[in-house]
Amino acid sequence: MRDKISKLISVLKKDGIINTTKKLYRYMKSRYLSKLNLFAYLNIKINIKKFNKILDDVLNSNNYDRIIVWRSTFGWNVPLMQRPQHISKNFANQKCLVFYEVTTMTDKVSNIKKMYNNLYLVNFNNKAMKKLLLNKINTVNKPKYIQFYSTDCSVSLDELKDYINNGYKVIYEYIDDISPVLIGTKNLPKNLTDKYEYMLHNTEDVFVVVTADEIKKDVISKRGEEKLVYSCNGVDVNHFKEDIDKNYVFDKEFSELLNINKPIIGYYGAMATWFDYNLIKYLAEKRKDYNIVLIGIKYDDSLEKSNLNQYKNIHYLGCKDYSILQNYANKFTVCTIPFVINSITKATSPVKLFEYMALGKPIVTTAMHECKKYKSVMIAEDKEEFIDLIDKSVNMNKENSKEYFELLNKEAEENTWNKKAQQIIELIEKYEG
Q1: What is the residue-wise DSSP string for 349-361?
Q2: Are 26 and 129 found together in one domain?
Q3: Do 322 and 230 sit in the same domain of this protein?
Q4: CA–CA dist 176, 186 (Å, integer)
Q5: What is the mean pLDDT of residues 303-321?
Q6: Considering its fold, how many domains does the chain have in total?
Q7: For residue 247, is pLDDT > 60?
Q8: Residue 33 binned pLDDT confidence (cut-offs 50, 70, 90)
Q9: Same domain, 158 and 294
Q10: What letter would DSSP give residue 36?
Q11: 156 φ, ψ to 5°?
Q12: Which helix (H) or strand (E) holds 265?
């Protein structure tokens, strides 16, 4: 309860009373009221033959080698498609049967819905659907896995142990620094730390996936390298290359910026405490002939506190859906990741880094450990170098810098989501059968 109160206070500071009340209602409806949805429960009971047949047809097919149940309140139809959706989709493409938990805050799925071949969205808050599905899975003689994020607070350790007792192995996605800043609470929830300790000491039932070297070091110090795989974030190359709509109609503010015809220094992602607002202010002051465009969700109240709105050449455009994001980013002259360097960003593998590569845009970042691994990324160790590298990138063109743009394409192709999913599958395959 203390964790929930801390989270509520954080949201109040960020969104105010009215928006917080709306969010609280949607959360209560999604997390608790949906469990009391008698109609959805009765629909399963009344149409039990129908749902039995649906699940039997899915589970009795020979189109998969293993079953993976993704448990988390991340949802599917969120504005920015992130690692869970990409990994699940590419698992399904590689002979894994995936049941992905949705949330009624983002997904209108009352029971089960086919998303792609071998990938089904499931409402686990529908207790009748959950019980029926898990009972059916328990009868299947194939490897079974429960997969979840290290930062997830919804699934309890006891529930995870129940999965293990029913023959499941665990895929523990240790994807970020375990920090209350990321969770949005004053202190780390006990639910989260209990799972962390259990997962990092159970080498029998748990496979650990890490996305950064800093996280990998932590895992090795606690359990060695057994059942461990490094699988950083990646990119759907086609989405950021082929899905660009040349006739897309932008919103008024962005259209006006394009008409000004000044270089656009762009960023998309969370506006949060780890974003270096002072660095962006410095860039805006020193380079008034550049327009700086920021796109993304307000993760906390740091954007309001930053006073970026006082700068005429800094433009915050709000959040853009993943389905149209590539159209905006394609108009950036230079793509940036201006993060402060701390324990959170040292352990971060930015999804946007690989998406920038696929866009074929010059990339300038601060000195994050995971960014330093790639030759196509220009790393700034201080604010003066950041400006110098931005200037250098603005003046690049594909004729004079052909090798650089070929390198961007090469490193994007080396980091597809298909390859990231394959790395995980190759690990668990070693122990199957």
Answers
A1: --HHHHHHHHHT-
A2: yes
A3: no
A4: 17
A5: 97
A6: 2
A7: yes
A8: very low
A9: no
A10: G
A11: -80, 160
A12: strand 264-268
299 and 218 in one domain? no
CA torsion sign, 337 to 151 to 347 to 168?
A: negative
| Pick from 31-40, 105-114, 162-171, 187-196: least confident | 31-40
Residues 242 and 176 in one domain: no
- The Cα–Cα gap between 6 and 180 comes to 10
Domain that holds residue 9: 2-234+418-429
Q: How far is CA 63 from CA 53, 96, 170, 374, in A?
A: 17, 8, 22, 37
Place of tokens 């690990």: 427
Kind and range of the H or E run holding 362? none
Cβ atoms 100, 145 nearer than 8 A: no
| Most distant pair of Cα atoms in the chain: their distance | 68
Distance CA 32, CA 107 (A): 15
Residue type, 128: A
SS3 176: coil
Neighbour-count burial for 128-158, b at 16+ CB within 10 Å, e otherwise: bbbebbbebbeeeeebbbbbbbbbbbbbebe
Q: Return the pLDDT at 287.
A: 98
Rounded to 5°, the CA angle 193-198-199 comes to: 100
Amino acid in position 382: D
Same domain, 363 and 344: yes
Q: pTM of whole model > 0.85?
A: yes
Share of the chain above pLDDT 90, in %: 80
**Distance separating alpha carbons of residues 176 and 347, to the nearest angstrom:** 6
For 129-134, what is the mean pLDDT? Answer: 96
**3-state secondary structure (DSSP) of residue 124:** coil
Contact 55, 133 (CB under 8 A): yes
**What is the C-alpha separation between 411 and 146, in angstroms, rounded?**
31
The answer for 413, left when phi > 0, alpha when psi is -120 to 50, beta otherwise, is alpha
Query: What would the mean pLDDT of 343-348 be, rounded to a whole number?
Result: 96
